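Posting for a labmate who doesn't have an account.
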Amino acid sequence: MEHLSGGIVKGDVKEVDLINYNERKCMMLSVGFDAMSMKLREKYKGKGSKGMVGYAKASLESLFAFKKTGAVIDYDSQVVEVNDFLSLGVSKLKHYGYGLRVFSKALPNDSCLHAVHFNGFNLSLVAPLFLAAVYKNVLGDYHKAKKIKIEVEKKMPIQLDGDYVHCADNFEFDVIEKVMRVV
C-alpha cells in the first residue's frame, strides 16, 4: 500500500489508452456469448446472486441459449472468417472480469487493442477456463490491432466494461492512445 501512496504523493502520472466503440470509451468489451452472460447476469443480481456466482449462473444459462453464427473479423486488414463464432473479447488490461487472465500480453499504454476470439464450445473447454482463472489464458485466437471490425450473420449482444449495451450485427473498435491520465 505504501508504494501506491508514494506514487500518488510524487504525482506519478501514467497515460493510458482506451477502446472506442461508437464514441463510447471503455477498457474492455465483448461481443457474443460473454456479452449475453452479462445481460443475463442482471436477472440473477435481482434474485440475490451477485459476483462470480451470478456470472456463473448466467453463463450456464447462456451456454444452452446461445446460438453460434458465422462471423468475419478484420484485425487491421487481416481478415479471419469464423463459421462457429462464440465470442470476441477486446481489452487494454491483462485481466478480464472476475480475475480471468485472458489478455496476458495486454498493456494499458501500448497503443494496441488486444483481442481473443473463441469458436464453438464444448465441455473440453472447462479445464482451460480454469487455467485462465488461476494462471493465464490458453484458449482462443489472440490478435493485436489498432482497429477491429466484426460482422456477424445474426445480431449479437455487446457489453462494455461489464455493462450490456445492445445487440447488433456490425461492430467497429479502435484504440484511442494515451487519452486517460491515471495516478
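Reply:
Got it, the C-alpha cells are right above this. Residues 122-138 have pLDDT under 50 and may be disordered.
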